[in-house]
Amino acid sequence: DVTIDRTGLRDQSTVYVKDLGPQIAWRTVFVVEYLGPLLIHPLLYLLRPYLYNNAPASPSYLQTLSLILISLHFVKRELETLFVHRFSLATMPARNIVKNSAHYWIFAGANLAYWIYAPSAPTARPSNPLITYPALALFVVGELGNLSTHLTLRGLRSTGGTERGIPHGLGFDLVTCPNYMFEAMAWLGIWLATWSLSTGVFVVLAVGQMALWAKKKEAKYRNEFADRYKKKRFVMIPGIF
Question: Would you name any one GO CC term (predicted)?
Answer without folding.
Answer: endoplasmic reticulum membrane
